[in-house]
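Reference record:
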Amino acid sequence: MTLEWEQVIVHSLDPAALGQWWADALVWVVVHSSDDEFEIRPAPDRVPGLDFVRVDEHKKAKSRLHLDFRPDDQDAEVARLEAHGAKRVDIGQGEQSWVVLADPEGNEFCVLGGRRQ
């Protein structure tokens, strides 16, 4: 028996708006869109993707699952994401080598230090 990781589900008040924000931030493609769901992937035939699914309640606490990204240049990527609408957040991480950001609906994600050699 084998499993293939298909996608990460992200609950959202506005799946299309949040999904498009992430598609633009990651330079991914939209593979499905409806009133209640918005799915993006690195390429149409590549997984895993992110699937934004409508919920009616606002996020209430720190996310129990978050995404980590390792860019070539952490400072440049953080600046690009902040210009795109991400906000720096303090979730109690203290002084670390990564930067914690949140998307427009408050979902945390981390931008790690530069790529490992």
